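FORM 7B: Structural annotation worksheet

SECTION A. Query
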Amino acid sequence: MISIIDNNTTKLLSLALDASTLRHQAIAQNIANVNTPGYQAMGVSFESRLSEARRDLEQGQSVSLDDLTTYRPTLEPAEENFSTGGAVTLEMELAKLSENTLHHQAVLKALTRHFSIINSAINEGKS
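SECTION B. Predicted structure
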């Protein structure tokens, strides 16, 4: 049986939600270690992975639903912040947390809207 829920939009929104959740975990880890000498801040690689998929599409290659799992967000050392000498600052992490919270809410809203459209289609427009 083919599921109408199993499509590119759902997969991409799911990956974006995974990325924002993982980013929250990385930020929490960074905040917990803000005073740890030599601590290397952690970040999430997701947008760069999506850029790879976009590049593949622009080059005429196909990106199937199964291929999307290879673009899964990953936790990795963050790029060094030269303005702080590479140190983790509480203010910067709190700003990242606020930004990621807004992003997380936007993805949830998009996913809710997407499922609402599917629900409407299943119920033939009836509430």
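SECTION C. Observations
Residues 8-122 form one domain. The longest strand covers residues 42-45.

SECTION D. Sign-off
Analyst initials: ____
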